[in-house]
Description:
ATP hydrolysis activity; Rossmann fold; six-stranded mixed β-sheet; amino-acid transport; binds adenosine-5'-triphosphate
Amino acid sequence: xxxxxxxxxxxxxxxxxxxxxxxxxxxxxxxxxxxxxxxxxxxxxxxxxxxxxxxxxxxxxxxxxxxxxxxxxxxxxxxxxxxxxxxxxxxxxxxxxxxxxxxxxxxxxxxxxxxxxxxxxxxxxxxxxxxxxxxxxxxxxxxxxxxxxxxxxxxxxxxxxxxxxxxxxxxxxxxxxxxxxxxxxxxxxxxxxxxxxxxxxxxxxxxxxxxxxxxxxxxxxxxxxxxxxxxxxxxxxxxxxxxxxxxxxxxxxxxxxxxxxxxxxxxxxxxxxxxxxxxxxxxxxxxxxxxxxxxxxxxxxxxxxxxxxxxxxxxxxxxxxxxxxxxxxxxxxxxxxxxxxxxxxxxxx
Length: 349
Ligand SMILES: Nc1ncnc2c1ncn2[C@@H]1O[C@H](COP(=O)(O)OP(=O)(O)OP(=O)(O)O)[C@@H](O)[C@H]1O
């Protein structure tokens, strides 16, 4: 459905130029939720804004449903943009308009007759669960409800594509979950393609089918979400996954752990932080205890989690292993032989 073909975006800046996006090519299929993740400044927003030409790429083409967006005349582009809805981190609602009038705005701008607007807004409010809030003003509703208004507004023109720019970043974890569930539901019910950008792997894990990881303007890794979680290939991806573990550990423990791992990196320590990833059968206590017996290694389990990614159970276990370097090496080879994906996170925590 969407072809991003060799897209680059260069901005003029006070100190010269900034290459915000560098030669990115991606294909996004109809009906999928495609995540783009990266640290702040990686180029995610710039890339996503090229899809509706809020940013016109310096080089490359954006082809949506066979139509080259970069080649459209202004009037054609305005019409094409109606097929693309967008939601934002800070919701961008008009504070002087009620919930229902915010949702009606894109219809008014598209010249839809008043009577028709009156018919089309209530089902949108129903879809996002805000029928009882239609006459409230943005200041009178919660952050999660504001984002629901944003979603209803983005869907008003019945778009084929929804762009989500850090839509849950300003929300608490529980509200985030409910908004992600809503996005999943409308993706399924309306067969709406969603391109979602975030800096949180948790968001990718919760709703995306595929993911592209960006760093310094480039896509450094992309694939099926389960595969990327199971076997991240790039250091930046490992660091983003490592962030999830770091956020869950108590601060004092994290600091002690970092100090111990730094010693190992300096050649004076025996500690290694590993992440085991498994789907279905895989790591369990017998494997760890067998490694203890055979290789004389000590293990402390720091963090464990089982999630469902794309309908499959996926487990990850963060373990601190202490032992002689040669024994640790033999133990990791042993786990890999048993089909366990294991990677060292010493550098990324
Ligand atoms: N209009 C602009 N003019 C000049 N530089 C820009 C412009 N927009 C973005 N940049 C620069 O391009 C780079 C990528 O920015 P972008 O906002 O796309 O990153 P991001 O990954 O979305 O990060 P964040 O999550 O912090 O928004 C940054 O160095 C940014 O300063």
